[in-house]
Amino acid sequence: MTTRPLVLPELLPLLEEIPTVDLSADSLPGFRAGLEQAAGQSFLQAEDYPVTLERLSIPESDHTPAIRLFTVRPRKESAAARPVLLHLHGGGYFAGQPELTATQLCQFAQELDCVVISPDYRLTPEHPFPAALEDAYATLCWITRNADTLGIDPARIGLTGESAGGGLAAGLALLNRDREGPEILFQNLVYPVLDDHTVTGQPDTSPVGGEFLWTRTSNTFMWTALLNPVAPGSADVSPYAAPARATDLSRLPPVYLSVGALDLFLDEDLAYARRLIHQGVAVELEIVPGACHIFDQTDTPVAKRSIARRIDAMKRGFGL
Predict the structure, then answer these.
(1) Which pLDDT score is estimated for 204?
(2) Of the listed 120, 135, 195, 263, which one is catalytic?
(3) How far is CA 287 from CA 179, 256, 268, 270, 302, in A?
(4) What CATH number should be reported for the domain holding residue 272?
(5) What's the confidence (pLDDT) of residue 163?
(6) Which of 18, 116, 226, 236 has its CA 20 to 30 A from that of 39?
(7) What does the alpha-carbon distance between residue 156 and residue 161 come to, in Å, rounded to a whole number?
(8) How many CB atoms lie within 10 A of CB 125?
(9) Which segments of the chain have a pLDDT < 50?
(10) Which Pfam families match (predicted)?
């Protein structure tokens, strides 16, 4: 189905700027290079914000290699310990780096008066599941252990991520609950990747999702690389890799979930939100009409409205 007429006119330039490509092993190097260039540009723009940008490192451990961190903190002094926002970047699990949305992270740091910490987690296909998840959990634990040095309040940790980073954040919330790790106040999930069943032809899927920017072919390549050697759709897929697989969603932090109506992940995100609600988790859901994947990474009115709503939700999550 041709869905271009359904795309918000203000987002059409995005489709011209980033042509839709079905990702594969052959096209992956080019995709990685493109995101690396975008991250560099975003980092340069972030230097114009009244924030302090740092690159820190978590030492190697028995479970993880050394992990590079990108951190953003307001430049103004604070007498009190600040809340901390743990951010996990997107990129299909096989590309991207924390600086990819650096300007957005600067906005979060300013408006929430918080410290943002984003790990450069290991990528597939070189490092399949659970490498990225263990890196994310190691970062969460490191934050709490080093709270005094970082000037943060370990009792006020929020979690956010977009696309693959949103799925990773949801998986981290599940793992952290089951390991009885540090308390997380909220999950701010942006068009998260949640269900490997999308590659097996689910019934009653939206006919208007996934034409642009992130296709079913790219999605199959992503899940295959992430789960290797387990096959997507098989019975052995871990719920920490595909959070939609989890049968118990109780006792999770409150969720704010945002997704475009034309996004491939709409169906799985709606189903996950519904199940969370049924198991007693507070959920706030934003469905953006006429919006495709990564719509928020544009300088458009619809992106600004969506980001403002997320910031408002995170303020409430931090008790601000």
Answers:
(1) 72
(2) 263
(3) 32, 11, 13, 9, 12
(4) 3.40.50.1820
(5) 98
(6) 226
(7) 17
(8) 15
(9) none
(10) Abhydrolase_3
Please list the residues that pair with 286 across neighbouring strands.
258
Give the residue carrying structure tokens 């990747």: 193
**Number of structural domains the chain divides into:** 1
Residue 74 has what pLDDT? Answer: 96
Cis omega (within 30 of 0) on the bond before 5?
A: no
Q: Centre a 10 Å sphere on the Cβ of residue 180 and count the other Cβ atoms it contains.
A: 7
Contact 225, 125 (CB under 8 A): yes
List beta partners, residue 82: 152
Q: How far apart are CA 286 and CA 289, in angstroms?
A: 10
Q: Which of 42, 118, 163, 218 is catalytic?
A: 163
Helix (H, G, I), strand (E, B) or coil at 311: helix
pLDDT of residue 200: 81
What's residue 278's pLDDT?
Answer: 98
Summarize pLDDT for 89-147 with one digit per residue, the tens.
Answer: 999 999 999 999 999 999 999 999 999 999 999 999 999 999 999 999 999 999 999 99
φ/ψ (deg, to 5) at 232: -55, 140
Give yes or no for a cis peptide into 130 (omega within 30° of 0). yes
Cβ–Cβ contacts within 10 Å for residue 123, how many? 22
End-to-end CA distance of the chain: 44
> Is 15 in a helix, a strand, or coil?
helix
Nearest-angstrom CA–CA distance, 140 and 159: 9
Q: Exposed, middle or buried by CB within 10 Å (0-12, 13-18, 19+), for 182?
A: middle
Phi–psi pair at 307, nearest 5 degrees: -65, -40
Active site includes 118?
no
For 185, the domain range is: 4-318
pLDDT for residue 239: 98
Q: Which of 87, 89, 197, 293 is catalytic?
A: 293
Structure tokens at 209: 């999702």
254 burial (CB, 10 Å; 0-12 / 13-18 / 19+) is middle
Q: For residue 301, with 0-12 CB atoms within 10 Å meaning exposed, 13-18 middle and 19 or more buried, which class applies?
A: exposed
User: Is 204 a catalytic site residue?
Assistant: no
